[in-house]
Amino acid sequence: MTTGLVDSGLPRVFVTTHWSVVLEAGRNDTPHSRAALEQLCRTYWYPLYAYVRRRGRSPPDAEDLTQAFFTRLLEKHYLQAADRAKGRFRTFLLVALDRFLANEWDRARAQKRGGGSALVPLDTRLAERLYTEQSMPEFSPEREYEQRWALTLVDQAVRRLQVEYQQAGKTAEFERLKDFLTAKRGSIPYEFIAVDLGASEGAVRVMVHRLRSRFRKIFCEEVAQTLEDPGDLMDEMRHLMAVLAG
Fold first, then answer.
1. Under 8 Å CB-to-CB from 148, ≥6 apart: which residues?
2. Would you tell me how many other CB atoms lie within 10 Å of the CB of residue 27?
């Protein structure tokens, strides 16, 4: 996947992020910190589910374990182990999940399946389909986790962008241009797009530029929400781009 997401124009305006709110709360549960943590969990549960599957668990067991893990996490039992020096939600989750799988497997299996409250709803039917279609057996479970994490961030940004265009009455424009969000500029067929949209080639170039610029900004915002220190954004972006390119 070729992207132009890392450049000198990355925003540096993020003061408070979801993950920094969670870490700042520490052991003290607050409505703000809990809402931030729930939002992060709802967004990034799928890479964890796929990781558990790659560790050899069956689909039902992976569902139970992922849900049980989030239950412990939302109850603040694992936040005490967060390594503030790392400051990245993706790193904390993987370390905490490994610890959970080592220590909580028997307890999770002993619980009645579906008997507890689903604090984070998991669409495991969709997850299993994606896992089957997109499995990366040549990757280690850890590398596949990072790949799926990066792709989830991209998907989240695309969804936000799609909603913005729909609300602006530009659904047709988005649908025609979305495939070129991360394409190399020389590969974009502006003249053909212009015919399809009934616009001039110059107008289409402006449309594509605006779409890609907005996508880059939204993607940066999504990445920033998983960091404690906004100053780590550039390094995290480079890491994610390397993962996607790999």
1. 46, 47, 50, 51, 134
2. 8
Task: Give the residue from 22, 229, 43, 51 showing the smallest Cα distance to 140.
Answer: 51
Nearby residues of 183 by Cβ (< 8 Å), 6 or more positions away: 2
* Structural tokens at position 173: 């424009």
User: CA 171 to CA 166: how far, in whole Å?
Assistant: 5
Cα(first)–Cα(last) distance of the chain, in Å? 8
Which one, of 216, 219, 173, 175, lies nearest residue 197 by Cα? 173
Alpha helices in the chain (DSSP H): 18-25, 31-54, 59-74, 89-110, 124-134, 141-167, 171-177, 190-197, 201-224, 233-245
pTM: 0.84
Tokens representing 222 are 């999504």
What are 73-122's pLDDT values in tens digits?
Answer: 877 667 766 665 567 899 989 988 998 898 876 665 555 444 555 667 78
Tokens matching residue 52: 């558990």
- Residues 116 and 88 sit within 8 Å (Cβ to Cβ): no
pLDDT digits (tens, 9 = 90+) for 176-217: 999 999 898 889 999 999 999 999 999 999 999 999 999 999
How remote is the C-alpha of 201 from its chain's centroid? 34
